[in-house]
Every structure is written in structure tokens, then in C-alpha cells.
Amino acid sequence: MLENGNRIVAEREPADYNGNIYKIPINDFYKFAVSVDCVIFGFSGDDLEVLLIKRGTEPFKGKWAVPGDLVYPFENIDDAAKRVLGELTGLTDMYFDQSKSFGEVNRHPIGRVVTIGYFSLIKKDEQNPKASSWAEQLEWHKLNKLPDLAFDHNQILEASMERLRKRVRRQPIGFNLLPDKFTLLELKALYESVLGEPFDKSNFRKKFLDMDLLTDINQRQTNVKHRPAKLFSFNQKRYEELTERGFNFSI
Amino acid sequence: MLENGNRIVAEREPADYNGNIYKIPINDFYKFAVSVDCVIFGFSGDDLEVLLIKRGTEPFKGKWAVPGDLVYPFENIDDAAKRVLGELTGLTDMYFDQSKSFGEVNRHPIGRVVTIGYFSLIKKDEQNPKASSWAEQLEWHKLNKLPDLAFDHNQILEASMERLRKRVRRQPIGFNLLPDKFTLLELKALYESVLGEPFDKSNFRKKFLDMDLLTDINQRQTNVKHRPAKLFSFNQKRYEELTERGFNFSI
DNA sequence: ACAAAAGTGTTATCGCTACACCCATGT
DNA sequence: ACATGGGTGTAGCGATAACACTTTTGT
Description:
The structure is a homodimer. Chain A has helices at about 75-90, 155-170, 185-195, 200-210, 235-245; strands spanning about 1-5, 5-10, 15, 20, 35-45, 50-55, 65, 70, 95-100, 115-120, 135-140, 215-220, 230-235. Chain A is an alpha+beta fold. In chain A, the strands form 4 sheets. In chain A, strands 5, 6, 7, 8, 9, 10 and 11 form a 7-stranded mixed beta sheet that branches. In chain A, a hairpin with a 2-residue loop joins strand 3 and strand 4. The longest helix of chain A is centred in the middle third of the chain and has 18 residues, at about 155-170. Chain A starts with a strand and ends in a 7-residue tail after the last helix. At the A-B interface, strand 2 and strand 9 of A face strand 2 and strand 9 of B. Chain A binds a DNA duplex through helix 4.
């Protein structure tokens, strides 16, 4: 038995690797680092956007990247993601989930780092992004004109995007990108941005109102130079009730 | 700069962790192990099944577990999954993909091991499972009567199951669980097992035949004591053609 | 002839698409 | 009055769910 930090690690038999026999000491298996990379989506009202950092340190200094960090030795991976998200947005509660993990041997130029991709949705009106010690700049980028990213972050971002597009159709998560109060046409614009396809105004309204997930809060827009729209909020409790009875969200 | 195997690793500033300042030397970040755990699905003709190993070594010696292994220092994670799958089934080509990663600090009793969950679909008639050095036994288990598994493997299996159920509806992957030649009712039985709901025979036939993805190979069942059914095969090329024209598989 | 599973046809309903139209507000 | 976006109504089409029915083989 060998020491690894404060834990005991079992020895391992010589391994059959690539057809040949290599003796790989067990300690060599415990030399990975694990990171989390968090794709943070926001909605401007017109476009879906993603929060990127400009790297302040090598490698890829000066390049745009998806915010992320190494997981601490005694930190759960979900907690690491929450930490990164919190540090950058100032928010403590947001929708987030894993997208996909990346573990190419040479994906990180200075060590073997396996990264776990996360994606998260935030309400841009509530957050207040601030750069941290390891980031020079923090900026929202429209998804249809992204720069070339550091590492394999273009892939990581693409994986998150794919997840978002699939999930937004089957789970009522789009609301996490909107203010608590929103109009039906704002909601429609959001879906159009995420899915990249137009919706018929009338049909969209009907479909959503028929699902009975929105609460009419009896308020209207102000300071608009046209007929002010009704404001709605998403009714999470109602969604849970309906789901228990077999309802499936679908857009 | 510090050495990590044959690579140079950048130093890291003291970290702000849980509100306190800890000095964490960069080397402590490079003490994770990464593993892959592969949920292998097969179809008996009646039931969806999963291939489990009985652990031959501690920890959890004697308990059933999802097959997996530590990722080698210079091995891509997908390659590691392919290796585990190949060693166990004797197959070199199979459908597989990531499901979800698990990284609770204490998920592995003897070290910090982050695992990447995979799920794969194999044709039971083609493979020939064999136990390896680290497994005493290898056995197919029906999904509706699973034993308690080692580690957090019940969660890993559940995550794979969820993925499979979602994907099987939108991608034509079910064929990977069937022999190359199959009848429509075998296909129907497969979908019923995976999704846990019955399908109407007539409607199922129509839906599938209308999609035009099956090739009638002009053969019939033999040695059945009733009218022999036509055999079909999945037409991958046709699927790709249709997909390019905007077709979306759906069941 | 019968059992058993393969395979076909029909109808009613529901949801969706497409499109036309009306309404309320600020300038 | 008009521009602008908010909001409503409806007809037709297509997919699908439900169910009854016919066909082909082995025994």
C-alpha cells in the first residue's frame, strides 16, 4: 500500500496497455488534475450570449476562454462549479448542470487535466460579473460571433450549447435566462435565440398558455411606445404538480 | 515550476477556499485519479439487461459493480472506455457515449477518484463476455431486479439508463441492441423494454416503415411454430441521407 | 381445425400550422 | 391618424391512438 495525500491507495497489478505489458506504479494513476469549465449563458433580450474571460496568465494568455478552475483536493465537483459560477457572477443560486467531460491526453499544455464541462443559465439583470485574480477581463459574447477560444474550449462550449438546445425543449428552464417578470413575446424571443428558428406568435402564445405554467401577475410593461404587454411569471409549483400527474413540458 | 511526470506544471497562487485562505501547493491539485465506468446494455429478447462484474478485490470485494478501470496516464478517456468495453465483451466496435461524471470527494474509499460514466449498447449475439483479472464473475442482470451495487454505481447506472431512454427516442440507436437481422415485433419489444411502455402493433409498424429506415432483406424467420415474420436490417446510409435533408428520427 | 403470431385497414380525434384580423398605446 | 407591437380566431391538414380485422405458418 502506498500513500496518496492522507489516504491509503491499493497497489495495482502490472497493466496490459496497448497490447504490451507495462509496469505502471499505482502512484502514476494519481497524478491527474481535474477541472471544471462553466459555460455561462445569458440573454440580452435579442441574443443568446455567453460569459467569457480573457486569460491573464499563461498558457493562452490574452485569449478568450470559458471560465473554470481546478477542483480542490477536498471539493466535490459540483461544488467547484458552483464556486466558479459564484465568484464570477456574484450569484449564489443559479441553474446549472453538467454537459460533458473532456479528457484528451494533450488537451492541456502543462499537465494532465481532465475537465468536466458545466453549463449554467443566469438572469443577466440580477448578476454583476466581476473579473477575478486569474482573469483580466470578463465579457459577454454573442453566440453567433465567438472568438477562437483557448484550449479545447470551443468544443466545451459547443457541447453545452447542444445540451441547452435539447433541454430547453423538454424542461422549463428557459425562464432562468429571463427576469422574474416577462412578457410572452420576450419568452418567444428567448426560444427563438436558443433554437435558432422562428415561432408563430399566435401559436406560441396558445401553446404556452395552454400548458398553464405561467401566472398572470396583473401587471403591464411601462415606458413602451406601444400597447403595453402583460407580464407573467413562471409557476414552479404548478409545474411540479402537473409533472406528478404525468405532464411533460414540450415546446 | 514543478515536475509532474514528464510535464511542467505552473505554480498556483494561494487559493480562496470556502471563505478562508489556504495555501495549496500546485502539486496537491495533481493527485486525482480518473476512472471510466461503463454501463453495458444488452437485450435478451424480452428484457433489457446490464453486464455487471462481481468484484474480486477490495474495496467492495464480492459486490456487484459496473465494469470500469482507472484511466492510464497517457490514455484518452474515450480510449479507456473502449479498452474496458473491449476487454469484457471481446468486441472492438460498439456504440458508446458518455453519460455523466461523478466526483464526490468520498465516492471512492481509498483515494480521490473522479469517474466518467459511459454507457454502451451491444448485440448480445455477437459478444462473448469474459471475466478479467480484476473481476471474479461477469453476469447479465435484468434491469428491473438489480442488486445493490458497489461505490456509487447505482447512481452511475441510473444516469446511463436515463440517457438511454432519452436518446433512444430521438436517435436510431436501438438497433445496436438487436441482431443485424430482426423482425418488427422484436424491434417493438426492444422499445417496450427500454421505455417501459407498450406500443400498438399496427401503429408501431406503420411509424417505422414510413420512416423508410429499414431494409426488407427478403428473408423470414425459421423454426417458429407460427407464421414466420419478415426480417429487416437497419439502413444506416439511408438514415444519413434523410438526416441531411432535415429528417429527424422520432419514436 | 386450431393456436399463435404476423400483418393490414379504418375511423375519430387532437394538435399543430398558417394566416388573417383586431386592439391598445404613444407620438 | 398612424406606427408599433400586443393579442385573438379559425379553417385545414396531418399525425396518431384505438381497435377490429385478415393472413400464414406449424401441429
